[in-house]
Specification:
The protein is an alpha+beta fold and 195 residues long. Helix content is 26%, strand content 29%. The strands form three sheets. It has a six-stranded antiparallel beta sheet with strand order 1-2-3-4-6-5.
Length: 195
């Protein structure tokens, strides 16, 4: 905590930790008012040159994709991406609000109007994502936030770090993906089988 990355992003809180890395809330010390942002860290398990090089290529490619997707009002903007000491970082806009999981309760039924509104909101975002020839790969209530300022749904966590971390690089520098990406219970069967 309180570590400053790239001379700019001060870590203030850990948001989550998983097999693919760590996500933090940070303050941007170089912007007026020091607004909060999300910093995602990916540190490759393997440190060989092939894995690091392939990881950097994929990381840069995903950062470019996130840059294009961030032009939508309901997708967090990519603020920066950088490498430091063989670790890769993404910095994204922090969305004030709460995850949709907080609105869904097993014993509470949603009205038809609420379901239609929810589907209309989220499908419009997904249509934009698909127009850009991208897929989210991990749509679940924890990855949909209700923005505090206007109540809109925002699709978060596009899994860029996950894609980079699921690769295996052989001695010839060839990459192959070996792990299905997504959350059990939410991903379709073809996705869980690695297709």
């Amino acid at each position: 905590m309180n570590q400053i990355l790239s001379g700019r992003y001060q870590i203030i809180q850990e948001l989550g930790r998983g097999g693919f890395g760590v996500t933090y809330i940070a303050q941007d010390l170089q912007r007026p008012g020091n607004p909060r942002c999300v910093v995602k860290l990916f540190e490759p398990a393997a440190k060989d040159p092939y894995t690091l090089n392939a990881g950097k290529v994929l990381f840069d490619r995903e950062a470019e994709a996130l840059e294009k997707l961030g032009n939508h009002d309901q997708i967090p903007r990519l603020l920066a991406h950088f490498e430091d000491n063989q670790k890769f970082y993404l910095v994204q806009e922090f969305i004030e609000g709460h995850d949709l999981i907080q609105e869904l309760h097993p014993n509470k039924l949603l009205s038809e109007a609420a379901v239609i509104q929810f589907l209309s909101d989220i499908l419009a975002v997904l249509a934009f994502v698909h127009e850009k020839q991208k897929i989210h790969r991990d749509i679940k209530p924890n990855n949909i936030r209700r923005r505090e300022s206007d109540g809109k749904l925002v699709l978060i966590d596009f899994g860029a770090v996950k894609q980079v971390s699921t690769q295996v690089v052989n001695s010839q520098g060839q990459t192959k993906f070996t792990i299905a990406i997504g959350s059990p219970g939410y991903m379709p069967s073809e996705q869980s089988s690695g297709k």
